Amino acid sequence: IRCWSNIPFLTVPLSRAHGKSFAHRSELKHAKRIVVKLGSAVVTRGDECGLALGRLASIVEQVSMLQNQGREMMIVTSGAVAFGKQRLRHEILLSQSVRQALHSGQSQLKDMAIPVLEARACAAAGQSGLMALYEAMFTQYSICAAQILVTNLDFHDEQKRRNLNGTLHELLRMNIVPIINTNDAVVPPPEPNSDLQGVNVISVKDNDSLAARLAVEMKTDLLIVLSDVEGLFDSPPGSDDAKLIDIFYPGDQQSVTFGTKSRVGMGGMEAKVKAALWALQGGTSVVIANGTHPKISGHVITDIVEGKKVGTFFSEVKPAGPTVEQQAEMARGGGRTLAALQPEQRAEIIYRLADLLTDQREEILLANKKDLEEAENKGRLALPLLKRLSLSTSKLNSLAIGLRQIAASSQDSVGRVIRRTRIAKALDLEQVTVPIGVLLVIFESRPDCLPQVSALAIASGNGLLLKGGKEAAHSNQILHHLTQEALSIHGVKDAVQLVNTREEVEDLCRLDKLIDLIIPRGSSQLVRNIQKAAKGIPVMGHSEGICHVYVDTDASVEKVTRIIRDSKCEYPAACNALETLLIHRDLLRTPLFDQIIDMLRVEQVKIHAGPKFASYLTFSPSEVKSLRTEYGDLECCIEVVDSVQEAVEHIHKYGSSHTDVIITENEHTAEFFLQHVDSACVFWNASTRFSDGYRFGLGAEVGISTSRIHARGPVGIEGLLTTKWLLRGENHVVSDFSEHGSMKYLHESLPLPQRNTN
């Protein structure tokens, strides 16, 4: 029993045991009983007179969806005062207009003044209309709603508290959504500083405290507080350095500076935080989020329940490591320090990492063995993904060789002058290469990606955030540890960060103020999901690797089977593996065609027939479901074309602009193919598998890009750089170059400085 204003009352019902709030956002999907608190700024229009009907309808739709999923939803709403103010103003204007029309004529109507309306009168006039509106909206979803009006005194009287508790439980049992509001028609005026006295005592003075009190009384799993700001900031929103706090922990109040309250309503953010902490102490998880933003208000409640990173989540469990936002800041700072190092120092870090990969081979393979055993025991990974997950001594040796290539070729990558122009006398302009900033690389089932990408980021002076699949957790952990060990020789350990928190990929893609480029490495579905989720952050990569090999009539018999076998069978899970084999019609029923089919059968490649190929056969293989299929296994499609022109048209229609090959001895046909196929990589008499950063001499790659902006094909160091302009003058001003000015533009090209080729 605790006391408030000398009146003893219980802060939680007698029957309630101390609950346990959710520790992570991802657990919110398990919330059964949910309270949604709608602040005055959410429910009312911008003019504070009347309701925001579209916004309210969207909220009702989301609540109804969750209710129909079997959850128990309750709403604590504001808005009665605003709705009443609208009605009373209308009545007053109507009354005044009638009186003035009778006594003064129409010319005086524009001079009418509306008196200040008392809030309790507005509440009395608005409560019935507000509830009628809720009922009408919920009826559209076959859901019944019920109104409950309460005051602070209702919580002080034990019998009233039990009655309220029983009423709410009965309504929830009948699948009815209770809509609760303070009875503003009878409440006393607010008393300063008496709203919330610490986290142990709470009085119902506004809807924030009411929602918190109700959430604890009803043993609610989740309290969602919707306001007109994105969540809790470390300083007043709108100030220069204000940052949204993703997760707030008890005891963090000292790190927050509170501003003024919203344009309407009785509570401010400080009241919301105190109410949230009180509810959290009572075992209820809390999220404070924006319910007014037009881009997110239509799904903000469902997003929160799905565990997406929306608003500020209150948690009692503080993680041991930094948040992903802090990691991104650390990566940016570390990246800038890295870029400021001498090229030889960056190369030294990469050489050290290459040595560690071979020196620590046993530890790496042991960690990888754990990942493989766990993946096989769970049985969740397909065979191609298991192959990607596996590391071996030969793979580590190849990685080390590739890293040394990167180190050797990176000596003048950052700060290289690529253009010099003399604008005018003593006014010289340079364009120089600089890092992009902070890269986010998301990769699945391929731990060898981690040291490759890290080396490229180090060589190009970029900060790096790595998000690997959980199936490679042990391998990624030791490889990241070795990367940081190499970075530490020059004090730039923070430049490469491995995200180990339970962060969803979609949430990472929303960090547009912290991340400059996203590079996905994984399945086509992963890439598509990231491209869809990334709002405002460019994505470099390809969603599919539908690679073609076209066998021309002038193809060499010796070359055909070797190139096709290597393209399809050497590593069928790779994105640069052959998926569709195009054969000139004249080659059907020839010894060369038979050799191709026999070789594919020996290699146990399952063949799917394209529509035209199937039409030539009496008994054909299974007809392909789609000509845009990336098999990623020992499967491929065979289709027939009438000419090289038709082969090019087929590739443009069904390909993914990744890698396409022609096999022919006719140079004219080959050049036509090379010039007309619009893909990132186009080869003549060479396997599709050469489309790789290591094989191109780039040392490694962060991925293969099929986009047409910035970088295309295998992306090495050059693809991770951008440029900036440096202008050196001596008291130059634009006005000197005007028609009557003393200076003239020269725009002379200057020679570039000698590149270091060692």
UniProtKB/TrEMBL annotation:
Can form homodimers/multimers. Its EC number is 1.2.1.41, 2.7.2.11. Bifunctional enzyme that converts glutamate to glutamate 5-semialdehyde, an intermediate in the biosynthesis of proline, ornithine and arginine. This is Delta-1-pyrroline-5-carboxylate synthase. The keyword Oxidoreductase applies. HAMAP family: ProA, ProB. It catalyses: L-glutamate + ATP = L-glutamyl 5-phosphate + ADP; L-glutamate 5-semialdehyde + phosphate + NADP(+) = L-glutamyl 5-phosphate + NADPH + H(+). One of its GO terms (molecular function) is glutamate-5-semialdehyde dehydrogenase activity. Residues 32-290 form the Aspartate/glutamate/uridylate kinase domain. GO terms for cellular component: mitochondrial matrix. Pathway: Amino-acid biosynthesis; L-proline biosynthesis; L-glutamate 5-semialdehyde from L-glutamate: step 2/2; Amino-acid biosynthesis; L-proline biosynthesis; L-glutamate 5-semialdehyde from L-glutamate: step 1/2. It comes from Furnarius figulus. Gene3D superfamilies: Acetylglutamate kinase-like, Aldehyde Dehydrogenase, Chain A, domain 1, Aldehyde Dehydrogenase, Chain A, domain 2. The gene is Aldh18a1. Keywords: Amino-acid biosynthesis, ATP-binding, Kinase, Mitochondrion, Multifunctional enzyme, NADP, Nucleotide-binding, Oxidoreductase, Proline biosynthesis, Transferase. InterPro entries: AceGlu_kinase-like_sf, Ald_DH/histidinol_DH, Ald_DH_C, Ald_DH_N, Aldehyde_DH_dom, Asp/Glu/Uridylate_kinase, G-glutamylP_reductase_CS, G5K_ProBA. Coiled coil: none annotated. Residues 324-588 form the Aldehyde dehydrogenase domain. It is found in: Mitochondrion matrix. NCBIfam families: P5CS, PRK00197.1, proA, proB. The keyword Transmembrane does not apply. CDD domains: AAK_P5CS_ProBA (cd04256), ALDH_F18-19_ProA-GPR (cd07079). In the C-terminal section; belongs to the gamma-glutamyl phosphate reductase family. In the N-terminal section; belongs to the glutamate 5-kinase family. One of its GO terms (biological process) is L-proline biosynthetic process.
